[in-house]
Design brief:
Helix 1 packs across helix 5 (about 95-110), helix 3 runs antiparallel to helix 4 and helix 7 packs antiparallel against helix 8 (about 185-205). About 75% of the residues lie in helices and about 0% in strands. The chain has helices at about 1-25, 30-50, 60-75, 80-90, 95-110, 110-135, 160-180, 185-205, 210. By secondary structure, the protein is mainly alpha-helical. The N and C termini lie far apart (about 50 Å).
């Protein structure tokens, strides 16, 4: 029993580090974060297999997600191009597993939110600095990757989704700042500064969807 508990603890610790790194890996494109997300799901399955944590499987979220997942599969099967549609929906279940994995780590690691905030803030800072450097200098700050258009790209990839990256991660960064730190004038000032730099860079990125978000 003690050995199983030790293995679960170690697995949970490893799982936390895989989750920490995803915001940084998103700066490189989609392959590495998708890989880490899938590995996180596998680690979580192992944890469930070696434990009695039934609440992560039998709950309202899991029930609704399973219904939504089968709805996606059904929609793909009756679409005009089922083969193409199933490529994106078949493995969609990994997002549900990842959500449950994050829930598990939050429950079992009291320092998870603070540690994740550190990694997220670091990734966000890299994106902001590189984005403004691209705009004013026409090249990346941290790499020699050439720009392929007038729009801004990710720091370590040529995908033109920098605006989407920071616009989607800003609400998460904001929520973690409010959860981890005590609300006050200093925190609100920091959030205001981040918001100004974020909105300005999203506008400069030229991405209409990101600006709407």
């Amino acid at each position: 029993m003690n050995n199983n508990y030790y293995l679960r603890f170690q697995s949970g610790d490893v799982l936390g580090y895989f989750i920490y790194l995803i915001p940084l890996l998103l700066l490189t494109g989609s392959f590495l974060p998708d890989l880490f997300l899938s590995i996180s799901g596998l680690i979580f399955i192992y944890i469930l297999y070696t434990s009695n944590e039934k609440k992560y499987l039998f709950n309202k979220f899991t029930f609704l997600f399973v219904i939504f997942y089968f709805y996606l599969i059904f929609s793909s099967l009756i679409s005009e191009h089922p083969d193409f549609s199933l490529r994106s929906t078949t493995f969609y279940f990994r997002y549900g597993l990842f959500s449950l994995a994050v829930w598990y780590v939050i429950d079992n690691n009291p320092n998870f939110l603070r540690n994740f905030l550190i990694f997220l803030a670091f990734a966000f800072l890299i994106a902001i600095l590189d984005g403004y450097y691209q705009f004013y200098n026409g090249s990346h700050l941290f790499t020699t990757t050439p720009l392929i258009a007038d729009r801004l790209s990710l720091p370590f990839n040529q995908k033109l989704v920098l605006g989407a990256y920071i616009s989607r991660l800003f609400p998460l960064l904001l929520a973690l700042l409010l959860l981890v730190f005590k609300p006050g004038r200093k925190l609100y000032l920091i959030i205001g500064i981040i918001l100004i730099f974020t909105d300005t860079l999203v506008y400069l990125s030229g991405e209409r969807t990101a600006l709407g978000l």
